[in-house]
Design a protein that fits this description.
The protein is of the alpha+beta class and 221 residues long. It contains seven helices and 15 strands. It has a six-stranded antiparallel sheet with strand order 3-4-5-11-10-7.
């Protein structure tokens, strides 16, 4: 399910207040993680610290800590249980959570202790749509189809000059990373489409908000 461009798969259960999710597994364990809304609030993550396997946590206690340049916060567990697996990949490469919060960016697997009594307090995204939309609006969250590694704000600049800056920025970045370019040039969309076709760089997403154009560009070559 998409709410104001933020993704919330409807096969998960959500602790909306804490921006975490829960997936029930076939072996009666659960997997927990954070929402796209939380990753948008936090920004690009630079450090993830998780509690060790074997730790018992009660609902609301932290499974670990996420850190970015502008954010430090816990990951409250949506249910009580014992941690039986942690995602070492997100410790080694925190950006995985930004790029794939519901799949590769999961946080931990738990053996739940009180799932029968605690799960009813969690909700599907379809049941929480209004609350999630209100959170997104209140926090001024902006979600895109790919999470940006860098932001370029080219306000009051002709798009041709913004493209020069974009090319310079992409030249310093590895293939696969993403730039968020913001422009107020009325010709920006036409020029960016032409630039993408000319250079082969991928325009993953774009939108217009008022007089501002937002472009999400992935370096592919």
């Amino acid at each position: 399910m998409e709410i104001d461009h933020c993704i919330f798969p409807d096969d998960l259960l959500y602790d909306v207040e804490n921006n975490t999710w829960l997936r029930k597994n076939q072996d009666e364990t659960i997997t927990a993680g954070v929402t796209s809304l939380l990753t948008a609030i936090a920004g690009r993550l630079v450090r993830v610290t998780l509690k060790p396997v074997g730790t018992s946590v009660t609902k609301g206690q932290s499974l670990g800590t996420l850190e970015s340049e502008k954010f430090v916060g816990p990951v409250p567990t949506p249910v009580s249980g014992r941690i039986i697996q942690i995602n070492q990949d997100v410790i080694d490469a925190p950006r995985i959570i930004n790029a794939s919060p519901y799949e590769n960016g999961w946080i931990a697997t738990l053996s739940p202790e009180s799932l029968g009594s605690e799960a009813p307090h969690l909700q599907r995204a379809s049941k929480s749509r209004m609350v999630l939309a209100q959170q997104i609006a209140r926090l001024h969250v902006r979600c895109f189809k790919a999470f940006p590694d860098r932001d370029l704000y080219e306000i009051g600049t002709e798009c041709s000059a913004a493209i020069v800056r974009l090319n310079e920025t992409l030249a310093t970045m590895p293939v696969g990373e993403v730039v968020h370019l913001v422009s107020d040039d009325p010709t920006a969309y036409v020029e960016m489409v032409a630039w993408s076709e000319r250079t082969g760089q991928q325009m993953v997403d774009w939108r217009r908000e008022g007089n501002l154009f937002h472009f999400i560009i992935r370096k592919v070559r």
